[in-house]
Amino acid sequence: MKELFDVAVIGAGMAGILAARDLSQKGHSVVLLEGRDRVGGRTFTTEAFGTELELGGTYVHWTHPTIWHELQRHDISVFPPLDSEKAYWLADGDVHSGTMNDYYEALNPLMSHLVHDARSQFPMPFNVSASANDVDQESLEDRIVSLGLSAYERDILEGAMSGLVHSYREQGVAQLLQGVSGTFGDYNGFFETASFWHIEGGTKRLAAAMMSESTATLRLQTPVQSISDNGSFVTVTTRADEDIHARFVITALPINTLDDITIKPELPAPVQSMIGSKNPVMASKIYVRAKGTIEPFNAFAPAGKNPINAARVESRYEGDTLIMCICSDAAAIQANDHEAVQEALRKFVPEIEVVDTASHDWGTDEFSQGGWGWYRPGNLTGAAPLMRQRHGRIFFAGSDIASLGAGFIEGAMQTGVIAAREVATALANGE
After folding, report:
1. Which family does the entry's similarity section mention (predicted)?
2. CA 46, 49, 51, 56 torsion: positive or negative?
3. What is the pTM of this model?
4. Which residues belong to the annotated binding site?
């Protein structure tokens, strides 16, 4: 048999990077396997328009303990987007405008009603086993319908969530309630943690800083086709039919890619079902370079009612304006179709002229096959906790299965730390 590593970590996103670093710093031999030609996973800092942009996961917060610890450790700061007082919202067939205060006056009572039971449903948001699982059977749509709203009210409420939603019917309400409970029941706090603060130098800078502390062997462009645990060690077989052996494996891949990998012994039926049903988010982010100086604004439209569902002026560049757009359904618009993007933005601001766009299609990316993680009804308290348990010598990590912070960079990093700690304990015990 070739070299036997202590640990093979599959997937060099934020979870895999952190797990590999922590284990290698404890003196264990670690190989980190990544299908792409870069590290970072569903975070992706790249150059466009002559400047650096985040085309994947972006936002962090000081209330996120794992990522904040790493940012402090590496002396990396955060910064906000441009301040905006202008708001546009598509509701009941018309675009309405006003100040952000006007928008919040309409939204606040609706959102408060939607998440009124967040603290009672998730008294300890970090521990879903202490939560009632009945609410986990509800979709976002189930909860919204139960409120008995007018068409105008429903569109305001759905528009406010459109930056997180691909399908109100397929995504569970429990993840939203858990997130709001984690910000002390304040939904504004939750949305701030989800969509506001950028990393100075981008997620690429943080990934590079963590990688610089790791002695793991990094192998890029090494996609995996199977993982087999024989009870004594694990064999990871790459698509090039190379066998890599390790005492333990941490699989830190998006769940939508796990159907492409044969795992033996088979996973528990509920876990297989969650993997088979997929993470439902098939959204995209488009950065737009718009001509000239445009007044900062926020725009909101319910998923399915405009190709661009959330938009915000984020910065200026060489006299032009950079606008971050979220498209709830990536298939509804092509990022390189400047006329289509311009038309969708002109729904809110008629004078916008699109100069250029930049995006990455995470849904068609073979190593993600979807966007940020969001649990389908039943999975937050059902299959996900099972997936966080060790499966023989195989452990799982990644944002899609986080106990708190699923879909966030924090959730990914949290699972990486936990998986590394559990594997280190098993190695210390001589397993």
Report:
1. Belongs to the flavin monoamine oxidase family.
2. negative
3. 0.96
4. 224
Q: How far apart are CA 399 and CA 402, in angstroms?
A: 5
Tokens, residue 361:
């299609």
| Angle, alpha carbons 173-177-180 (nearest 5°) | 140
The pLDDT of residue 407 is 95
Long-range contacts of 117-122 (CB under 8 A, 24+ apart): 117/177, 118/176, 118/177, 118/178, 118/180, 118/181, 118/185, 118/187, 119/181, 119/184, 119/185, 121/174, 121/177, 121/178, 121/181, 122/174, 122/177, 122/178, 122/181, 122/182
Q: Which residues of the chain have pLDDT under 50?
A: none
pLDDT score for 1: 59
Q: Scan for tokens 């915000």, then name that residue.
A: 312
219-272, pLDDT tens digit by residue?
999 999 999 999 999 999 999 999 999 999 999 999 999 999 999 999 999 999
What would the pLDDT profile of 159-168 be if each residue is shown by its tens digit? 999 999 999 9
182 contacts 214 by C-beta, under 8 angstroms: no
Residues 409-431 as b or e (16 or more Cβ within 10 Å = b): bbbbbbbbbbbbebbbebbeeee
Burial class (CB in 10 A: 0-12, 13-18, 19+), 257: buried
Q: Give the residue numbers of the binding site for FAD.
A: 224
Q: Are 56 and 324 in contact (CB under 8 A)?
A: no
Structure tokens at 417: 């730390």
Q: Which pair of structure tokens corresponds to residue 363? A: 């849904």
Find how far residue 336's CA is from the centre of its chain.
23
Both structure tokens of 344: 């969708």
A 10 A CB-CB count for 213 gives: 15
Are the C-beta atoms of 122 and 133 separated by less than 8 Å?
Answer: no
d(CA 25, CA 423): 13
pLDDT at 2: 73
Q: Which residue has the tokens 């962090």?
A: 60
